[in-house]
What does this fold into?
Amino acid sequence: MRLRLALTASSLLVAACASAAHAGPGDRLSVDGHGTVAADGTVTVSGTYRCLDDSDGPVFVSSTLVQRERSAGIGGTRAVCDGRPRTWSHSAVVKEPAYRAGAARVKATLTQLTPAGSLGLPLPGFVATRDSAVTLR
It folds into this structure.
């Protein structure tokens, strides 16, 4: 019985994650073409977003930096969904192995958490995603 419940719950989560969360024609996300890497390992990436509606649940902007085999989440912030273009910037100290100046990729996601099911547990839905080449300086 526990196994069946776990499989059902995981199936629902996978299905919810794969769906869009009320993505509208005005929702968008971009990544700036460059980021920075400091001597202490602090990496900063940035971009812009626009979302129109967060009435079904909070919306977040998250970013992951990929360089060679290295991949790390650089940050996440709550989005303000008022239809106006807004900027986002995420920084994190990443060491061992540290990122280096040069070519990399940023995978950014605008995600909405929407209550679902009889328990009202928040499930993620993707409003917008972007996978962009960047240059770390």
